[in-house]
Known about the structure:
Helix content: 10-25%
Amino acid sequence: MSDLRGRLSAARAAMAGRTSDFDLNGMPAGERPALRGAGVLVAVRDTGRVILTKRSSALSQHPGQIAFPGGKIEPFDRDAAQAALREAWEETALPGGAVEVLGELPGHETVTGFSMVPVLALVRGPVDLRPEAGEVAEIFEVPLDHLADPDNYRVESRTWRGMQRRYYTVPWGPYYIWGATARILRALAEGLR
């Protein structure tokens, strides 16, 4: 596990600045949304697998999308790490005692108005995760080696709000990982190189 910790810590130190959903598209003048703070947990098991969730299709925001556990930073949260850990517990039953926070990754701004702070962490030991039915349809894991390979990323596009929008994807089996989640993972992959 110390090798994995060292590899992740070195990647974190090597990472460049903030990323954004606008990286591939630019931002139309005067259309910058008001940003709300969010903390997301980039949780890597000591087996070298990254924990991701598939959001419930009943949610009003980002239904059915692949995401890191996490959510809005509440006034009672000390910082983004506390918000990410609290949300990970609520969404997946990941106990905070099994998590070693390694630190924050560069932030990510979403087109939907969030200033996300990805919190990189190691998960020690076998931990049984359970999806919270109201928010999470499924919990799954992807090998870090797959996510660390830049050749596994593609740029795709679709029409959104009447405009063509480009974004990163990093498919894994039946899972279509795209948007902010894929962009944060791609930044981590660049740091791991």
